[in-house]
């Protein structure tokens, strides 16, 4: 698989139905990619038939692989496991619902090939399009989160750290995900702040995005976890836990 150009990591928790729809679309698109591509689904300790849905398609698709975590550890842990297992030149992750349109994958690949170290989808850019908007309370929550990310998480200048569409040079992904610790929703912010700390070139990409009403975010419980993880990220930077600024040798 190392000779392939790209690995797409898909974190999944109880996603059997979604994967039955989205995996054929991703596989069909990868078949048109010069250099080939691989899909790596990371089953985050699902209690439904997520693993079976993936394994059913693996015999016909040798570029489809599955990692199964022994327990639910969080989206950040699932993405990290997939990114560190990837051995291709480029690697990225997308959500199982394909809320960010597949048409943007070639744009992300082109951005990396043109010199970026990290390419992230951003719903906040002027040329981005939202096909189905989030409810008003979620949009208000997103604005509050962006301010918290700036004040507590210390990540100014990145308007949409939480879009589940991010692509990396393979070596950069291994460096960043090998040094991060957050296992749940705030892993995106930790990775992006560390990328800036290590002076990697981060390019933002306008995207077409569709809200999935079946969100797994639990507002009360997960908001408290987010605040805890934001504080943890800030503490670790203040105490030098991510190492000195600049790229590692």
Task: Give a brief rundown of this model.
With 249 residues, the chain is of the alpha/beta class.
| Major sheet summary line | 7 strands, mixed
How many E strands? 9
The global form is globular
What structural category arises from helix and sheet content? alpha/beta
The H-and-E topology, N to C, reads as EHEHEHEHEEHEHHEEH
CA-based gyration radius: 17 Å
Would you identify the CATH H-level superfamily? Spore Coat Polysaccharide Biosynthesis Protein SpsA, Chain A
Uncertain spans: none
The CATH architecture assignment turns out to be Alpha-Beta Complex
The count of domains is 1
On the 0 to 100 scale, the average pLDDT is: 85
User: How many helical elements?
Assistant: 8
Strand sequence of the main sheet, in spatial order? Answer: 3-2-1-4-7-5-8
The CATH topology is Spore Coat Polysaccharide Biosynthesis Protein SpsA, Chain A
- What is the terminal-to-terminal distance? 27 Å
Q: Helix fraction? A: 40-55%
Secondary-structure map:
Layout: E1 6-12, H1 16-30, E2 37-43, H2 50-55, E3 64-68, H3 75-85, E4 90-94, H4 104-113, E5 118-122, E6 129-132, H5 136-153, E7 165-169, H6 170-179, H7 187-197, E8 202-206, E9 208-210, H8 219-238
Parallel strand pairs: 1-2, 1-4, 2-3, 5-8, 6-9
Antiparallel strand pairs: 4-7, 5-7
Helix pairs in contact: 5-8
Please provide a written account of the structure.
This protein has a single domain (6-238), classed as Spore Coat Polysaccharide Biosynthesis Protein SpsA, Chain A. The protein is 41% helix and 18% strand. It has helices at 16-30, 50-55, 75-85, 104-113, 136-153, 170-179, 187-197, 219-238, and strands spanning 6-12, 37-43, 64-68, 90-94, 118-122, 129-132, 165-169, 202-206, 208-210. A 7-stranded mixed sheet has the order 3-2-1-4-7-5-8, with helices on both faces. Strands 6-9 form a two-stranded parallel sheet. The mean pLDDT is 85.
């Amino acid at each position: 698989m190392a000779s392939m150009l790209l690995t797409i990591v898909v974190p999944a928790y109880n996603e059997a139905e979604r994967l039955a729809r989205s995996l054929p679309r991703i596989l069909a698109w990868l078949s048109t990619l010069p250099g080939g591509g691989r899909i790596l689904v990371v089953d985050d300790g699902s209690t439904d038939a997520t693993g079976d849905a993936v394994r059913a398609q693996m015999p016909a698709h040798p570029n489809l692989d599955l990692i199964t975590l022994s327990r639910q550890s969080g989206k950040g842990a699932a993405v990290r496991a997939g990114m560190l297992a990837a051995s291709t030149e480029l690697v990225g992750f997308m959500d199982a619902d394909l809320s960010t349109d597949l048409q943007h994958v070639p744009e992300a690949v082109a951005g990396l090939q043109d010199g970026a170290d990290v390419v992230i989808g951003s719903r906040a850019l002027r040329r981005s399009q939202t096909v189905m908007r989030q409810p008003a309370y979620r949009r208000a929550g997103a604005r509050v989160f962006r301010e918290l990310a700036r004040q507590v998480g210390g990540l100014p200048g990145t308007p949409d750290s939480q879009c589940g569409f991010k692509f990396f040079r393979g070596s950069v992904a291994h460096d960043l995900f090998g040094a991060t610790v957050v296992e749940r929703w705030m892993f995106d912010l930790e990775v992006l702040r560390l990328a800036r700390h290590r002076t990697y070139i981060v390019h933002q990409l306008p995207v077409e995005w569709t809200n999935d009403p079946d969100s797994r975010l639990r507002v009360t419980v997960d908001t408290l976890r987010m605040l805890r993880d934001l504080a943890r990220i800030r503490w670790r930077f203040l105490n030098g836990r991510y190492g000195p600024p600049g790229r590692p040798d």
